[in-house]
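The following record pairs a protein chain with its ligand, UGB.
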Amino acid sequence: RKNLQILSPEQIELAKMLLCEGQSHLFSHWPEPGVDDRSKLSFFEQVSRLNASYPGGLVSYIKNARSLLADSKAGKNPFDGFTPSVPSGEVLTFGDDNFMMLEEEGIREAQNAAFVLVAGGLGERLGYKGIKLALPSEITTGTCFLQHYVESILALQEASCKLSPGKCDAQIPLVIMTSDDTHAPTLQLLESHSYFGMKTDQVKLLKQEKVACLADNDARLALDPNDKYKIQTKPHGHGDVHALLHSSGVLNQWKNSGVKWVLFFQDTNGLLFKAIPASLGVSSIKGYHVNSLSVPRKAKEAIGGITKLTHADGRTMVINVEYNQLDPLLRATGHADGDVNCETGYSPFPGNINQLILELGQYIEELNKTKGAIAEFVNPKYKDSTKTSFKSSTRLECMMQDYPKTLPSSARVGFTVMDAWLAYAPVKNNPEDAAKVPKGNPYHSATSGEMAIYRANSLILRKAGVQIADPVVDVFNGQEVEVWPRIMWKPKWALIFSDVRKKVLTGCSVSQRSTMVISGQNVFLDGLSLDGTIVINAISGAEVKLTGSVQNKGWILKHIDYKDSSFPEEMRIRGFIIDKVEQLVMNYTEPGKFCIGS
Ligand code: UGB
C-alpha cells in the first residue's frame, strides 16, 4: 500500500484491478518505497501495455483464462455436442476452363484486395535463427520469401490495373503482423531493399504483443524467473491479427479507399501466389464472406482439417479443426480409426493452409461486435493427473482461422481446394524432424519447399506445351525428393496460366539438369531447346524470343551435410548448394526486339 504513493492515478487503478483479480502475489515481495522504484514503475508500464493490447484488458484476460483452465482441468471437450463430417467446397483443377475463368476474375478483383501477412512467429521448429521472411524461398535466384510476396502483389496490381485502366492508381496495401521477435529485422529487411519496389506507405507493420503467462489454475499471472518486476509473457498466436487490424483503424481506411477483399497468408509458402488469383475468383463469383484455401491433406499431417461441425441443437459451422484435435474428435464420435487416409490416399478432410479471403464489409461488421477477439484455447502441461499444477507456466492462445466461429449462420463461409503441388509448400520443419516424417507425407522443410517450386513451374510449363524432362529422385538431408529442372520466373512474367500460355509459342524442351531463370515481362519461349543454364534479364520494353538450342555445363546441385557449419544456415537446412559451372546470361537493358538461340 505504501508503494501507491510512487504511482500515477492510472497505475493505481491498474494496481487495484490486479488486487481485485487475485494477483496480490505480484507485489508480495515489493520492498519499501525508495527501493527499486524504477523497476516498480517499469512493471506498471508493462502492465499498462498488457492491459491495452488485449480486447477487454487484463480483467478479461484473467477471467477468460480462469474459465478455460477450469474447462481444461475438467477435461471438457471443446467440441462437446458436435459431430464432424466432411464439408463440400469448390474443388479446382489447374488449367481447365473453369480454373482459367476464375483466375481472370481473380485478377480483375485484385485491385480491390488488401493483403495481410502474419509473420510474428520465429520458426523454432525450422531451426533457423533469422526471420523466416528473409529466408530464400529457393537458391537458384536467392529470392527471399518477402521479396517474392511483394513482387507477386505488385504484379497483381499491374495486371489488375491493365484490365480496368480507369482505376490504374490503385495500390494494393500490404499489412505485415510482426512481434517483438520479428519486428526490427522485418523492418530492416524492407528498408535495406527499398521495400522491394513497393511504396513505403503501401506497407504497414502492426506489431502483436505477447500475453501474460499463467502460473496456476486460478490464473495467477507468472513472474519472469529472471526479473521479479516483470510478468512473464509468451506469444498469443496468429489470431491476434484480427484485433490488431480492428484497433489500428486500417480496415475503415481500406473500406473508404474501395478495398473489398482481405487476403491473409503465412510467412513461408513459396507456391501460394499461384493459387491466389483463382481462389479470389471463387470468393468473388460465389460471394463468400469467408473463403479458406485448402489442399488435399494426408492423415496426421501437421495442418488443420476443414471440417463441418453439426451440433446436437442443429447449429452447423465449417471450420478448421487443428491437427492435434481432429484425431481425438473423430475417435470420440464413432470413427474408431481416427484420422486416417481414405481410398484416395488422403484424409477426407481437406487441409487448412491458413490462406483466408474475407469480404471486408462483413469483416468490419463482425469486428465491430467482437473487437477482433477470437476464440481462445489453453494448453497447460500438468505435473500429474491431479491437474493441480503445471510443469511450466502456460498462456491463452488463438488462431486466425478461428475467426468464423463467432459468425452468424447467415454468413457465407466456403472453402476452395487446390492441388498441393500448386498451392502449398511451407518451410517449417528442421532437417532432423523432416527426415522423420512418415513416408509419403510432405516434409514441410526448406528442401521440400524449394523442390516444390521447381516442380510446380515445370508442371505448369508442361501443361502449356513445353517438353519438360521427368524428374530424378535424390536424397537431401535424409529426405527423398523429386528434382525437376530448376525453372524460375518473376511474377511479372506470368501470374496466371493464360499468361504462361501466351509466353510459350512453339515446341520447346528443357532437360532435367537444366536451369532457366526469366526476369522480364516480354520474354517468349519459341522453339527453345535447353540443356544447361540460361538466365534472361530484360526490361519490359525489350521483347526477347528464346529459340534454337542452348547447351552448356549448367548449374549443378551439390549435396552438403546440414551439420557442416562451414556453410551458412540457410544452405544447410536445405542440404544442397548450387555449383554455377557454366551459363548463358543475357541482359537486355534497352527497348527493342531480340532473339537468342543457336
Ligand atoms: N504467427 C504469428 O504471426 N504470430 C504468432 O504468435 C504465431 C505465429 P506456424 P501453426 O499452414 O501449415 C498453422 O507456427 O500455427 C505466424 C495453422 O494453425 O507456422 O503451427 C507465423 O509467423 C494450421 O492449421 O503454424 O499452424 C506463420 O506465418 C495449418 O494451417 C503463421 O503464423 C498450418 O499453419 C503460422 O504459424 C499450416
